[in-house]
Design a protein that fits this description.
The protein is of the alpha/beta class. Among the domains are: about 1-90, no CATH class; about 120-325, Aldolase class I (TIM Barrel, Alpha-Beta Barrel). It has 17 helices and 13 strands. The chain has helices at about 1-10, 45-55, 70-85, 105-110, 150-160, 185-195, 215-220, 235-245, 255-265, 290-305, 335-340, 345-355, 360-370, 370-375, 430-450, 475-500, 500-505, and strands at about 20-25, 30, 40, 115-120, 170-175, 200-210, 225-230, 275-285, 310-315, 400, 405-410, 420, 425. The strands form two sheets. The protein has a ten-stranded mixed beta sheet. A three-stranded antiparallel beta sheet has the order 1-2-3, with helices on both faces. Strand 12 (about 420) and strand 13 form a beta hairpin. Helix 5 (about 150-160) runs parallel beside helix 6 and helix 7 (about 215-220) packs across helix 9. It is globular, with a radius of gyration of 25 Å. The chain starts with a helix and ends in a 7-residue tail after the last helix.
Length: about 525
């Protein structure tokens, strides 16, 4: 056993970071952090690796109830694979091996901007119980009364155009609050772009609850070239009205469906008639079979009328009022606090997998979910020797968010703690570099270097900030959930490979944006 101990203990750093075991209904696997390779293994190897990954202590192998000859045979196979497959050799995270376009900050924010989102208003005609702008979430502004002026909006458009000389195609998004409260401003902005920047290809998008949609609005918006809309729609009336309500507490479902019907009627004969709309479906507790059945039935019937795709998300832990929060965290030991428990993280994905034939979500859901990231992961013969800033975009370059008063934020999901500039003064490059690159890298080395999911993680700047600084301690819950999600996605991906390989093959034609 001592010869195996020497090999096992010679790995770089802790075993926590070197891989992860997972299972399907009829097989056992592990993924190697450094290479991205996945191997099907027997139960003896699984138990040994699981012990090493969770305890980082060779002596704990003696606590496993296994015949000595079986353990030695399993360790022999593991040590042989270390040599022949370059396993368990992921480089230790350091400043020297973190790379990416973030380190070319000035060039990217000054010349490679691609998208801008305008916060047209802080006002909203609904009071959704899980909204990030509710009083229960201190990281974001609360519902306000401020509107963006048309002057600020036009300045923002000009800023996008002058900072994107390398891209003919740019994206403009309308956000709120509820952007339809500022329909006349939306109309004026679009007319301004078409008049002043007719040489640019512009893609428009808007996120709306649709309760204010009128025939006049629908007639205009559906005639705008390259205009897409994301509709907040959680399901049928009894599901929708649990969370999405007017200020008086009345459910908004009927008003939303009326607005949707008006828009889709106008869209039927428009230049964008073939383009699907998107439904943003926020899944909230309770996660029951019955609830998923009624949600699926609702969208199945809607599919008979409309062309759409479904975007699934769960409520952020920080945006759930205490009365709705029923998260059951099971922490059994010190490592369990760092690693993931056995709690199911994505119950709708599980339901979809078990109901592939009838699920409205099926391929649409899988194509846009974590399974695509598993399918498209980097797999190399030798350990990948570079790391990135997780799923972080380049602040200001990919999707700049402009608040009603003209402040710049990296996107609408970040919160308002650390603005990166203003429409009047432009980008604060030195501030962005300090807070969003240098300080972030320091925190990443401190917290991410011991994580097996580092090469599969798409966590971004969300929940990374304290009052005026980067502080990953604010996102530990998100990190735990991300590990749960990735672990579960690995299991489901390999389950689907067995049950429905055609679905996996279809992922080859899908790109990650």
């Amino acid at each position: 056993m001592e010869k195996y101990r020497k090999i096992i203990e010679s790995r770089n750093g802790n075993w926590f970071r070197l891989g992860k075991t997972f299972r399907t209904s009829n097989a056992l696997f592990f993924i190697d952090t450094g290479t991205g390779k996945v191997f099907k293994i027997d139960s003896d190897i699984y138990r040994i690796l699981d012990c090493l990954f969770k305890t980082n202590d060779f002596d704990n192998l003696y606590k496993i109830k296994m015949k000595k000859e079986n353990m030695e045979q399993a360790l022999e196979e593991i040590c042989k694979a270390i040599e022949t497959q370059n396993l368990f050799s992921a480089p230790i995270l350091s400043k020297e091996n973190i790379t990416g376009s973030h380190f070319e900050l000035s060039e990217n924010v000054n010349n490679n901007m691609s998208s801008i989102t305008l916060e047209l208003t802080e006002r909203c005609n609904l009071r959704c119980k899980y909204c990030v702008y509710s009083e229960t979430n201190s990281d974001y502004r609360t519902f306000g009364e401020n509107d963006m002026s048309i002057e600020t909006a036009k300045k923002s458009i000009d800023f996008l155009m002058t900072h994107s000389p390398n891209d003919k195609k740019v994206y403009i998004g309308f956000y709120g609050g509820e952007p339809l409260l500022r329909f006349q401003v939306i109309k004026e902005i679009i007319n301004y772009v078409e008049e002043v920047y007719s040489n640019r290809e512009v893609m428009y998008s808007m996120t709306s609850n649709m309760t204010l949609m009128t025939e006049e609005m629908a007639e205009f918006l559906t005639k705008v070239k390259n205009f897409s809309i994301v509709v907040s729609m959680d399901g049928p009336e009894e599901v929708y009205n649990m969370q999405r309500v007017f200020p008086n507490g009345k459910g908004a479902f009927l008003a939303a469906m009326k607005g949707l019907d008006i828009y889709m009627k106008a869209k039927k004969d428009s230049i964008n008639s073939d383009e699907p709309i998107a439904f943003s479906v926020v899944v909230t507790q309770p996660y029951t079979q019955e609830k998923f059945e009624v949600i699926n039935d609702f969208f199945s019937k809607l599919k008979e009328k409309y062309n759409f795709m479904v975007l699934i998300s769960y409520v952020s832990e920080t945006s759930i009022p205490e009365e709705y929060e029923k998260i059951n965290q099971r922490i059994e030991n010190k490592w369990e606090d760092i690693d993931e428990s056995d709690q199911i993280y994505d119950p709708l994905m599980i339901w979809t997998l078990n109901n592939i034939e009838k699920s409205t979500f099926s391929m649409n859901y899988f194509r846009r979910g974590a399974l695509l990231e598993i399918h498209k992961r980097v797999i190399s013969e030798k350990p990948i020797n570079q790391y990135s800033l997780n799923g972080c975009c380049i602040p200001g370059a990919r999707r700049l968010y402009v608040t009603v008063n003209g402040d710049f934020l990296p996107c609408e999901r970040i919160g308002t703690q650390l603005p990166i500039g203003n429409i009047n003064s432009g980008f604060d490059i030195s501030f962005i570099k300090k807070k969003y690159v240098d300080d972030f890298v320091e925190q990443e080395i401190k917290y991410c270097g011991e994580c097996w999911a580092i090469n599969l993680c798409n966590n971004c700047y969300m929940n990374c900030f304290g009052e005026n600084e980067v502080d990953f301690s604010h996102r530990h819950a998100m990190c735990r959930n991300t590990r749960k999600r990735i672990s579960e996605s690995l299991s489901i991906y390999h389950e689907v490979m067995t049950l429905n390989p055609e679905m996996i093959n279809e992922l080859n034609s899908v790109t990650i944006e």
